[in-house]
Amino acid sequence: MTQKISTQLYLISPLDVSGGFPERLERALDEGEGLITAFQFRVKGMDQHEAAASAEPLQQICADREVAFIVNDSIPLAKRLGADGVHLGQSDGDLTEAREELGKDAQIGVTCHASRHLAIEAGEAGADYVAFGAFFDSATKQTEHRADLDLLEWWSAMVEIPCVAIGGITPSNCRPLVDAGADFLAVSGAVWSGDEVAAVKAFKEQISGK
User: Fold this and answer.
1) Contact assessment for residue 130 and residue 155, using Cβ atoms and an 8 Å cutoff
2) Is the distance from CB of 131 to CB of 120 less than 8 angstroms?
3) Secondary structure of the chain in the HEC alphabet?
4) Cβ–Cβ under 8 Å, residues 83 and 104
5) pLDDT surpassing 70 at residue 5
6) Residue 79 pLDDT more than 90?
């Protein structure tokens, strides 16, 4: 019997979302219908007004396709936009504060690197998902922590909270993460560094096993 694959893509924006990026996002989401279920708005060095202006058209594109729009790092920006949620690094704010500011329905994720302890703590504090990584070298972000497949296998067997695998994930290396139990694959450079439609199609083929 063929195992049903439920792993989905969690698409992360490039740092530059100007120019024709909204059209690229539309193409990627349309190709990944049913596979891409979350999009993270991740920009650096913008003030909140500029970030909000950049985010709004992307947020609408996601809303039109019922893709969750998650803001990276900033609880105030997530609240200002009425985003679906926020993703917090270990130094980006308190989960309890995020819940109070954004409400009970917000999707709040927490970076847990390669730490079972941090993940358990996040789960107990009410995180909606935890992110583990990096699993591979990443061109998008410097990686200080390296996670392994055993962590995904342990988490998926022991805990019901979804887990996200992140860090250097490409169509050619993603299959072991799927098999180990990752609920989501967080991808950025593998999609935006080339043809986004071809990349999403390649992920789809690898994840489905076809």
Assistant:
1) yes
2) no
3) CCCCCCCEEEEECCCCCCCCHHHHHHHHHHHCCCCEEEEEECCCCCCHHHHHHHHHHHHHHHHHCCCEEEEECCHHHHHHHCCCEEEECCCCCCHHHHHHHHCCCCEEEEECCCCHHHHHHHHHCCCCEEEEECCCCCCCCCCCCCCCHHHHHHHHHHCCCCEEEECCCCCCCCHHHHHHCCCEEEECHHHHCCCHHHHHHHHHHHHHCC
4) no
5) no
6) yes
